[in-house]
Amino acid sequence: MIDIHAHILPDIDDGPKDWVESEALCCAMVSDGITDVIATPHQLGRFGNESCQPIRQKVDELNQKLKDSSVALTVHAGAEVRLDERIESLLDEEKILTLAGSKYLLLELLPEIALDITPLIGRLLSREIIPIIAHVERYPYYINSSKSPDVLSEAGAYFQVTASSLVGTFGSSVQAVAWHFLRDGNVAVVASDAHDTDYRNPQMTRAYEMIQHNMGVELADILCCQNPRCILNSEPLITPDQTFSSTANTFFS
Q1: What was the pLDDT predicted at 185?
Q2: Rounded-to-integer distance, Cα 217 and Cα 234, Å
Q3: What percent of the chain has pLDDT over 90?
Q4: Could you tell me the CA-to-CA distances from 218 to 33, 63, 93, 165, 215 in Å, in that order?
Q5: Which CATH topology does 2-252 take?
Q6: Which DSSP letter does residue 239 get?
Q7: Which residues of the chain have pLDDT under 50?
Q8: CB–CB of 57/19 below 8 Å?
Q9: In which element (H, E) is residue 119 found?
Q10: What angle, 0 to 180 degrees and rounded to 10, lies between the N-to-C axes of helices 172-183 and 204-215?
């Protein structure tokens, strides 16, 4: 599997505190069946990180440490970019990162309020930048109300759901929303959003197995393997067939 969203770089956001914790998380990813990961430290928002160079430097250093330790994981540079009015200008100035230098931008929405970002999506698409909405199932306004993210997918954005959400780490409400989005065919990719080896550990294999059991191996492959590779290679994503929604196990209704 390829993980397109993980916080594995040390001392840069709310991920690992040091290289020891970073390497431990990388080893956990290998044990979880992950061969490639895009490091996505937070950019903008409360962590700042309004520069790409420190992220790239840490990715290079981590890859060297993993090679020296014979850890079979390749790390690519990226970021989880918080919604900000400066996104377009910062892209022009090359101060924020897309996923592994691809045409895909991992976009984190504001947690407090659901803003209409369809104009931004349109402008990004006109630049051939395709937004992927990070952990769409965990925004309170999608969990606790009748609001739907469909307008964002109709505007051209894709959705990423977190493996830990699917297995229930964040509680039954988040789990139900995550499976609801999967059943509706709105999810393009599953990623770990891992931060550590404890509460926020990868969980990709378990999520894959649950998707396979409830919705079939074809969808599990698309969400956990094929589309992540398409993102890594800047290729068009495979759109899950809507017929998958009829095969979901009602346990997650």
Answers
A1: 87
A2: 24
A3: 84
A4: 17, 31, 40, 20, 8
A5: TIM Barrel (3.20.20)
A6: P
A7: 242-243, 245-253
A8: no
A9: helix 118-126
A10: 50
